[in-house]
Design a protein that fits this description.
alpha/beta, about 35% helix, globular
Length: about 550
């Protein structure tokens, strides 16, 4: 057994996207911050976000309008206090990004106006105004790289790349039952050295993103395996609204492409959705056409594909001037030209793909979970903002607003808490190296396939129950494997994805209606008194 390596810090941030890095930068002047990144620090959902960040910057727009649009897109299951809190704090949090160097696009002729810059605002599905700040069609990349540059230059922030969080360490897990439960740190898996290490911290922040890797087809990078949700649940935290999995309507359908999205801004700038014969179909489903919320558009595409037996539908912006398309969507234009598709002349083959986890770990307005000292921000959390369907470009906004809010809360408490005393190391004395890695791979593929088939865009009670039976069997196999063999990246992710899959199906079975992203043939009618679906752990495990 390797000698245990122990780290100490004031704040441990698990995740290196917009939420995690924003919080790290805000707290770094006050103490030592350690950031875990499962892969290279840029390999997260933030980096691949194309559209932008929603915020009221235009005088003709209003916070009230932003709130109303979010409520409508969320099928009126959003927490209005939270929506207003985020919309009201959007501008100063986005301004913080601007001050940190994020190069949002400006209006023509405004590039040198630093006193009162006018930003180019686009519009996306569900929005009644142009309020999306963007950096061409690669906003996430611009945000991620700016934050990374600022983190790199800060002496109080240490980033550990290729490190997974394995599990949270709490007083209760250590058998300290005569004191209130509290998070003390985490066990982490060093993928470079292939060993488990210990981190002691005053506060732990989950910023691990969503769980879309639970589905066979997803727009997300490989790191989106629900780690934070599973760890928080095992530590005794409630989760909510995990039945609402957003499927992005327009992911590139191409044998050589994986996970490449066609940003909603394409539709915001006039792109049409077409059948293989070239006819438009969205006006048949919704009066808002291509600018209907994502759940409506994804179901329409899914319906047409199944009705026609087609492999894909098409997104077409070729009727717009070529120079307009190339200027506004340079990343997409260049990427697709590499696949032999000229979007200025021909339509783009697309299919829906799992994209965003609208539910997550239940938190308050400061991002605090049910466990003292543990916070969750960004896609891993359930704040109440998204309701039954996330409105476009509210996700990066939620990241930066809650990074600010959580940082303010931690700032007030930082000097009231001591770094925990030495923690016990990870015990590998009873495990061996596995010679049956094929078991993990088989279970992994089976999980993602039946989640796509049974818990996808359209559901039934029978499909959900069938999925639950398979999840329980795979959990038994995987937990036995976890108990007997040394950990690996695939094993850790499979264990977490199985836990999150179970929570998704449990939430879906509890909702006896079709609302937003949860569409079931057995309960097609809306309930009048619908509430969030909240699951409570029996006890920490």
């Amino acid at each position: 057994m390797n000698e245990n390596r122990e780290h100490t810090c004031d704040v441990l941030v698990i995740g290196s996207g917009a939420a995690g890095l924003s919080l790290a930068l805000r707290l770094a002047p006050l103490g030592k911050v350690m950031v875990l990144s499962k892969g290279p620090r840029s390999e997260g959902a933030t980096y691949y976000a194309q559209g932008g960040i929603a915020a009221v910057f235009d005088e003709s727009d209003s916070v009230d309008s932003h709130v109303q649009d979010t409520q409508i897109a969320g099928a009126h299951l959003c927490d209005e206090k939270v929506v207003r809190f985020i919309a009201e704090n959007a501008k100063h949090c986005v301004q913080w990004l601007i001050d940190g160097g994020v190069p949002f696009d400006r209006e023509e002729g405004d590039q040198n106006n630093d006193e009162a810059p006018r930003y180019h605002l686009t519009r996306e599905g569900g929005h009644s105004h142009r309020r999306i700040l963007h950096a061409a069609d690669a906003t996430g990349m611009a945000v991620q790289m700016s934050l990374q540059d600022n983190v790199h230059n800060h002496p109080n922030i240490e980033v550990l790349e290729r490190h997974n969080a394995l599990d949270l360490i709490t007083k209760q897990k250590l058998g300290i039952t005569d004191q209130p439960n509290r998070v003390l740190g985490a066990y982490i898996w060093d993928r470079n050295e292939e060993r488990v290490e210990t981190v002691r911290a005053k506060f732990v922040v989950l910023a691990t993103g969503g769980a879309s890797k639970v589905y066979q087809y997803t727009s997300n990078p490989d790191v989106s395996s629900g780690d934070g949700i599973a760890m928080a649940w095992r530590a005794g935290c409630r989760v909510a609204n995990l039945e609402f999995n957003q499927f992005h309507p327009t992911c590139l359908f191409h044998p050589e492409a994986r996970n490449f999205l066609m940003t909603e801004a394409l539709r915001g700038e006039g792109a049409y959705l077409r059948r293989p014969d070239g006819s438009r179909f969205m006006p048949d489903f919704d009066e808002r056409g291509e600018l209907a919320p994502r759940d409506v558009v994804a179901r329409a595409i899914d319906f047409e594909m199944k009705r026609l037996g087609a492999d894909c539908m098409y997104l077409d912006i070729s009727h717009k001037p070529a120079d307009f398309v190339q200027k506004h969507f340079p990343t997409i234009y260049e990427k697709l030209m590499g696949f032999g598709i000229d979007i200025t002349k021909e339509p783009i083959p697309i299919v829906p793909a799992a994209h965003y986890t609208c539910g997550g770990v239940l938190v308050d307005q400061q991002g605090h979970t049910d466990l003292d000292g543990l916070y969750a921000i960004g896609e891993v959390s359930y704040t109440g903002l998204h309701g039954a369907n996330r409105m476009a470009s509210n996700s990066l906004l939620e990241c930066v607003v809650y990074a600010w809010s959580a940082a303010e809360d931690i700032r007030d408490k930082l000097n009231q808490v001591d770094i925990p005393a030495s923690l016990p190391g990870w015990d590998e004395s009873q495990v061996t190296c596995s010679d049956e890695e094929v078991v993990i791979q088989h279970n992994w593929h089976e999980l993602r396939l039946f989640m796509w088939d049974y818990v996808g865009i359209v559901r039934t009670t029978k499909r959900l129950e069938r999925a639950m039976r398979r999840i329980q069997l795979l959990k038994e196999e995987t937990n036995e494997y976890y108990s007997n063999f040394r950990v690996s990246n695939n094993l850790l992710e499979l264990r977490n994805l199985l836990q999150v899959a179970e929570l998704i199906v449990r939430c879906a079975l509890e909702r006896k209606e079709s609302r937003g992203l949860h569409y079931t043939l057995d309960y097609p009618v809306l309930q009048g008194d619908s509430k969030p679906t909240i699951l409570v752990p029996d006890q920490p495990c």
